[in-house]
Design goal:
Blueprint lengths: L2 H16 L21 E5 L4 H12 L4 E5 L8 H7 L3 E3 L4 E3 L2 H12 L14 H13 L45 E4 L4 H12 L4 E5 L7 H8 L5 H6 L3
Parallel strand pairs: 1-2, 5-6
Antiparallel strand pairs: 1-3, 2-6, 3-4
Helix pairs in contact: 1-5, 1-6, 2-4, 2-5
Length: about 240
């Protein structure tokens, strides 16, 4: 195992540690509530402490989402986010909102047991946000979903993207992968391996649909039928073969 890969796994595991089990299990109280007919759209930054709490809420409620990554200096979706005026767009109700607290309260009210049942780990408190910030600190490197990858520069992709395409020499202009099909990611928020994949998608500004498969999810059987086993490390390996 390379030093870079060892660092990625260790620091991502440390990030998961600071969030405990938040986002790793579906709330039993949410299992019988209606789910949106169309996926909610989230404009988010993987490393953002507040975006993390929103993603944890989606895992807890077993909700899928269409993700539009907005890393720092991103040019693909950040202008769209400013124009739309909201981090969340719900095509089912035409609702649009920006603050993480409002988004979490909204999804718990519409697709869960109600905003009065929001767990303390994702509430709008100094403790919750502080622990989420600690997770961000564990992954505080530019390639960990913090900043847009600038493919038109001569810098090595190895300093920006933790994936197979980072093997080019420092003096060779990195080549971006061509992806012509929609990306579907089976993931759950607190998995250290899934986080690394999401970070790669973030810096590349690649939109994707996340299918949350936290413990207790109704979609776990579907994921096992696709992958052969319930192990999100397989998702990580798709980017690191």
């Amino acid at each position: 195992m390379s030093l870079r890969k060892t660092y990625n796994i260790a620091s991502s595991s440390a990030a998961s540690f600071w969030r405990g089990t938040s986002g790793s299990r579906v709330l039993s109280s949410s299992l019988h509530h209606n789910k949106p007919k169309e996926n909610i759209v989230l404009y988010q930054k993987e490393s953002c402490p507040w975006s993390r709490k929103v993603r944890e809420a989606f895992s807890m409620l077993d909700l899928d989402a269409n993700i539009k990554p907005c890393p720092i200096e991103g040019t693909k979706y950040r202008p769209e986010l400013k124009q739309m005026g909201g981090k969340e767009q719900d095509p089912n109700t035409k609702a649009s909102m920006y603050e993480s607290k409002d988004i979490i309260d909204y999804v718990f009210d519409h697709y869960g047991p109600g905003k009065d049942q929001v767990p303390s780990s994702i509430q709008d408190t100094y403790t919750s946000t502080g622990l989420s910030r600690m997770s961000t600190l564990m992954r505080a490197m530019p390639w960990n979903g913090l900043i847009q990858y600038k493919g038109d520069t001569a810098t090595s992709a190895a300093t920006l993207i933790p994936s197979k395409i980072t093997s080019e020499p420092h003096d060779v202009k990195p080549k971006m992968p061509e992806i012509n099909k929609p990306i579907h990611l089976y993931s759950f928020e607190n998995s250290p391996y899934c986080r690394i994949v999401r970070e790669a998608l973030d810096v590349l500004e690649l939109p994707y649909t996340v299918h949350n498969v936290a413990q207790g999810s109704s979609k776990r059987k579907m994921f096992v039928s696709l992958s052969g086993k319930m192990q999100c490390e397989e998702l990580y390996n798709l980017f690191h073969k």
